[in-house]
Automatic annotation (TrEMBL), chain B:
It comes from Neolamprologus brichardi (Fairy cichlid). This is Mitotic spindle assembly checkpoint protein MAD2A. Keywords: Cell cycle, Cell division, Mitosis, Nucleus. It is found in: Nucleus. Residues 14-197 form the HORMA domain. One of its GO terms (cellular component) is kinetochore.
Amino acid sequence: MDLEDDTTILTTLKSFNSFISRPEHPQRLSEHSAGSGILQSQYKRSMELLEAAERVHSKNRYLQLDQEKKQMELSHKRARFELEKAASDSARDLEHEVDRNQELLTQIKKLEERAEEANKKITEQKEANDALQKNLEGLNKTLEERDDKLGTANQTISSLKDEIRELRQKIQNQDSKISAQTLENQELQEKLDLQQRKYQEVSQLCQSLQAAQSSCSDHIIKIKELERRLVFQEQDFAIVKTVKSEVARVPDLEKELKRLRDDNAYLRESRENCSLLKEEVEGLRKKLERMEKTKEELINIELEKERLTEKLHAWENLGQSTGLNIRSDTISKCVRLNHKEKYLNRHLYNLSNIVRSVERSQSELRAELTQQHSKTLEEQKKREAQDALVRRLQKRVLLLTKERDGMRAILESYDSELAPTEYSPQLSKRLREAEDILQKTQSHNAEMEAQLTKAQEETGTLKLQLQTAELELESLKKQQASATDSNSLLTKEEVTILRQKIEDLERERQRLEEQNNILEMRLERHNLQGDYDPVKTRVLHLKVNPTAIAKQERQQEVEALRQEVTRLRDLVRSLQSGGAVGHSQDDTHNPSFSLSLAPSKEVLDLRKQMESSELRNQRLKEVFQRKIQEFRTVCYVLTGYQIDITTENQYRLTSVYAEHMDDSLLFKKGSNGSMQLMETEFSKTLGEMVALHLHHQKSIPAFLSAVTLDLFSRQTTV
Amino acid sequence: VKKMTSTLKGITLKGSAELVAEFFSFGINSILYQRGIYPPETFTRVTHYDMSLQLTTDPKLKNYLTNVVSQLKEWLFECTVQKLVLVITCLETNEVLERWQFDIECDKSAKESSAPREKSIKTIQDEIRSVIRQITATVTFLPLLETPCAFDLLVYTDKDLVVPDKWEESGPQTIDQSEEVRLRSFTTSIHKVNSMVAYKKTESV
């Protein structure tokens, strides 16, 4: 309401303002046109407006006062509300505070109780405190002790720390040393690297050196080869010289050859003659032997002849005495005996034939016997087998009947049981099972029976064999027995012969085994040596192989050498025929001789040198001989002794004035150079002079001169 | 460098043929070096079978050996070769002085079935190494070859084999009065190689 009043007031104010402003506008417009009337209206209007304004203003004042009053009332009411609220609030607060008071009181009580308790606790705690304090004191003591210990420990710690400091210093020193050494190491490594580089360079130099050395060695090898070739050439030269010397010897050798061949032929002929003669001698010896034998036989025969002649004479005497014609009788007797013999022989022959036939029939009969025995055995066996079959069949029949009875009984039992209860399915099952079992057992049975029959057959055959063997044994025994009756020796002989045969065969077998071993060893050896069986293997090699190439080269070398040799031989021949002639014939001969100019000159020079040196040698020899001869004669003439050297270090002196040719003095030169007189016949005669000059004066010249004077004094002729 | 197939899957007939041919190549080179048939400066050192061996550098000899070994490899694969023989002949007297013989036994059932056999390459190489070491050691008791010598390689094959070009039939070239020594053998489980050496007896004074 107030607000509406306010708005009306405001709207009225606005309209008033607007009204006021309007007339101002039109006032300005219409200032000049209407003057006085307008002013009066305006003044009226303004007066009315002023009154309206005053009225409005008073209304406004009135409204404002109403409003203020209402506001005052409102505010009063509000104040009352508020006061009431405040009162209620304060009542509530009071209540709250009363409650709080009570609570606080209770709390105070509780707190007081707690305080009491706390006091008690405090007292207790004080007691505990006291105890604790005592403990504390104890602990403090211990603490003090520990502090002391700690102090000592601290001292030790300090000392250890000092040590640690020292050690650390040491470590630092060592670290510094290590660093220094690492530095040295690095330096050394750098040096090493340098050295390695140097080493590599050196190795490279070495390799170059080795290459150079290898090239050097190659050169050396080449030099050696050249030297070898030189040597070969010198050898060839030497060979040429030897060939020359040999060629010089050739005619002599040929003569000797001829002589030797003639001697050989002669010797061979003589040998053949010798052999022929030997054969003749042997033949003659054999003849001699035969002749001697024949002689002996002759002698024996002659003796027999004499005996027989004596017998004859005796018989003839007999014949003459008896007066019977014995000859004819004997002849007839002989004839009869011969007839008898023939008859007996025929008889023997027939008997032997009969015996053989009988033996044959016997053996046949025996064979038939054995066959019959075997047949009887077989039939017996068959019978037994059939008896066994019969027994088996009977057993089977019994088993079957038993099974049938059993099955019947079962069936009956089942039938008897079927009536009260129904067991058909089970029965049928059981039946089927029983049938299966039956079949199995029957099959098993059949197998067993088959095995049995097989075993029985085998036993039967074995028995047969046994019996046949026994029969044979018996027959053999009978044969042996019969044979022992008639021909005991023969069987023994046969046995011995058979034994010998066995031994021989065994020996042969061993021999063959040894041969086999030897052959196997030989085979192995041949295999090692490279033999092969041409039927199964073939040996192949490349056509162009090193050996073939080497052989070809060698052949070429050999041919080249042969050509050279022939060439050199021709050279030598030409040289021998005449070196000077060769000079003039150079143009006409082969160009190969043109090469020989140089050697021929050398050869001539060498020949000349040789001749000259030989001449020199000869002359020197003559000169020496002459000089020696002169010297010896002068010595002989001047000293009067001829001095000859008989053997080494022995000198024979013969005097000019010697009485006999054999008178001589022998002097021997000792190892120390002194001369000693040896005993000769002549020296024995000079014993006094020896004693005087040699033993006393010890002078050989004096002795010799004394001897010459003595001989000179003795000589009779001048 | 060996072929990986033969090391991984076991030994096939082809692998075995290659191994045996390789052994012959190195073995022949070793024998030629040890016996001084060719000058030692014509050989160079190589490493194989975990040992150092000598191989020739002479081109003609190399060519000859490769020809023989390649043909031998074929024959090993066909299992038609029975022996390989290295014959050393003296050139002056044309006598055979030494004979190195290698017998080859081939398991022909490996031809039909192509399943590889279980045998490690390492054991085969160890066996080959011991054989070559023994060959080197035999040189100590063999008589010196003082005269110039040449060698030849002979192959003993089945009679029904077709003779290839450049090959011809030859005699066995056995030694007159020989001493034989059996050496070690090795086997790749398909090919077995037995080695032996025969030399002419030296005349004892």
